[in-house]
Structure formats: C-alpha cells, structure tokens
nicotinamidase (Rhizobium lentis), 211 residues
Amino acid sequence: MALMKALLLVDIQNGFCPGGNLPVPDGDEVVPVANRLIDSGRYDLIVASQDWHPPGHGSFASAHPGAAPFEMGELSGKPQMMWPDHCIQGTLDAELHPQLKSEEIDLIQQKGEDPRIDSYSAFRDNDQDATTGLSNFLQDQGVTDLDVCGLATDYCVKFSALDALEMMPGVRVRFIEDASRGITPEGVAAAIDEMRAHGIAVIKSTDALRE
Ligand code: VGL
Ligand code: ZN
C-alpha cells in the first residue's frame, strides 16, 4: 500500500513565541525548520493546530480568584495548570507565526474552545472525551505516517503525538525534535522519554528531509 505522509504542526502561534503571552523559550526557532519541512514536498498533507481559547477560559489563572500563573489549580474538579491568558480567539496572540508558510497548510485544527476543559492535544480534550475530528479526517485521507512537531514539546506536542498513536492504530508516529521547543528542559526530557516509551520515534528534521 502506498504511503500517505502527513505533517502536524502544533501551535506555532505568536502566543508561544518570544513576545507572546505564554512564550516558549526560543519558540520562534521552530519556524524556519517547519518551513523547510513544508517546502520539502515530502508531505502529502500538512495540518496545523491552533490553540483557540475564548476570553476567560478556565485554564487561565485570571479566571480563578487568587490563582497565579504556572501554579497548579483546579478546573471542573481536576488538577489544571494555571496559565497566563493566551491565544484568545481573534487576537494577534492566537495567530499562527507570521513567517510560517501557512499557504501550504491544508487544514487548521482549532482546539481549546470549551471554557470548562483544556485541550493540549489537537485530537481531543484533556479528559479524552470530546474529540476535534482530526483523527477521523487523517484516517479518511488514508494517512499512514504522521510526523509531529511544534510548541510546546512538554504539553501540546506530546499529548498530540500520544493521541495520534492511540486514536489511529497502525499509523506510524514520529516526533521531530529540532522542529519543536518546550516550556522547561525537565519537561522536554520527560516528554521525550514518554513518547519513546510509547513507540514514537524521535527524529531530526534532516532525517525527515533525507527520505
Ligand atoms: C499549550 C499550555 C497551554 C501548548 C497550550 O501549546 O503547548 N501549552 N495551552
Ligand atoms: Zn492553551
């Protein structure tokens, strides 16, 4: 059977780049790498996810009296990291990075719209209940191989890659390390271990470009 290769660019948005509301250290450095992958012609399908929160989203510390950003809090009765307000629908912070070659993106999958639950994964909410429809879309397209990269490795990239594996059995999932950046070094190391333990290959963009 023919290979059908897809690239998932996770949350390469202003909000997660320097100058954004939830900046990932050196987050903008993924943009040229992502553009080389996009331009390579090696992917049959390119999808970008976009964190897309309504104002006052329950993952924002500002929505919880007394809560401070980057502390654990609670959302709908479950532990939830309290984030600064970020990627609010319709704001510049939520736009894809302006240098990302978005003309070549086939689908933009928005997520995180439900104020009562966070959605790190591009595939489903954090309670694994409501799905975005992305796994059905990729399976309908006959995707056999999915490369995942973007921001942030220790949150949305990791959860997207793990969900891809679980929700699309048989699809080969890889994580492109140098096309991704994380919030903390310890978080990145743990995320890479966890992805590897589940059978996700950790590769470099040069590996993907060589094939
Ligand atoms: C993300 C925290 C909150 C991410 C999104 O894209 O990794 N992290 N919302
Ligand atoms: Zn978010």
Observations:
- The helical segments are 30-39, 134-140, 153-167, 185-197, 205-210.
- Residues 11, 16, 51, 83, 120, 151-152, 155-156 surround pyrazine-2-carboxylic acid (ligand 1) (CB under 6 Å).
- The chain has a mean pLDDT of 97.
- The longest strand covers residues 172-181.
